[in-house]
Amino acid sequence: MDPTPSVPALQLFSLAGQNVLITGATRGIGAACALALAEAGASICLVQRNPAEGTQPNLETLNAIRALGGSAEVIYCDLDDLQAVKQVFQKALDVMQGQIHILVNCAGIQRRSPSLDFSEKDWDDVLNVNLKSVWLLSQAAGRHMVPLRRGKIINFCSLLTFQGGLTVPAYASAKGALGQLTKALSNEWSQHNVQVNAICPGYIATEMNERLLADPVRLRQISERIPAVRWGEPKDFAGPVVFLASAASQYVCGELLVVDGGWMGR
């Protein structure tokens, strides 16, 4: 592994000249991360779902990055289409001048149902998007990064990487496995100067948690247990993602960085 550069501290966080491939960045945590990485100087390639027939694509994040004076491109792929996922990394290389320095796997879906009634389709959908697509993208990234001896891969796990949750058996299984995948890849690739880490969000006020936010009982139960006495916001991930994407985290390997307002500490 290359040593941490001997430069002024703030310079360690610069991403100037770095190309980022990020999924799940049209809204919420992913959008906040994409903007933060662009603000730190990176050029961004956004992976977005194919727009539904007759609709316009969501270009809000793309336009926001460009409004900052940053560089951003979009490629389209439905992450539940695993054959299409296998083509994503090469497509990103094609639009980013043959270089991807950082991969951020932020996309995810949720299905809620009591385990007795949980459908096989919901199970497969969640595991394919939240785990298998991440594996395929990470493997493609590793094949690009390891020979070049440089790279960063950042996965998005969850508190359910550590806990079982309620009525989310597929999500908990996928995120638990993703934590182990993060460590497994780190064990192999750290020696090649490729750092693989994960961010584990706590309870964040995003669209994925709308059902919890709308349930007064669960909202009270969860909120009372958070030591920070508030739910997180997407902007709370700007600092952590830039840290893990930059030279500031050069000796951070296989870490599951919890960003949860103190939930796990309690």
UniProtKB/TrEMBL annotation:
Pfam families on file: adh_short_C2
GO molecular function: oxidoreductase activity, acting on the CH-OH group of donors, NAD or NADP as acceptor
Keyword vocabulary terms for this entry: NADP, Oxidoreductase
SMART domains, per database record: PKS_KR (SM00822)
Protein name (record): 2-dehydro-3-deoxy-D-gluconate 5-dehydrogenase
Transmembrane segments: none
Entry similarity comment: Belongs to the short-chain dehydrogenases/reductases (SDR) family.
InterPro entries membership: KR_dom, NAD(P)-bd_dom_sf, Sc_DH/Rdtase_CS, SDR_fam
Ranges where the Ketoreductase domain occurs: 18-192
